[in-house]
Amino acid sequence: MLRNRLITLLACAALPYAAAEADNTLNADDRQVADFAARMADEHGFAADDVRAVLADAEIQQSILDAISRPAEKTKPWHEYRKIFLTEERISQGAQFWNEHRASIDAASRRFGVDPSMIVAIIGVETFYGRRTGSYRVLDSLATLGFRYPPRSKFFLRELEEFLLLTREQGLDPRLPKGSYAGAMGAPQFISSSYRAYAVDGDGDGQVNLWDSWPDVIASVANYFSVHGWAAGDPVASLAQGPGDIAPGKGLKLDSTVGKLQASGVRFEAAQEADSPATLIELDQVDGPEYWVAYKNFYVITRYNRSRLYAMAAHDLAEAIDSRVGQTG
Question: Residue 61's domain spans which residues?
Answer without folding.
Answer: 3-66+133-208
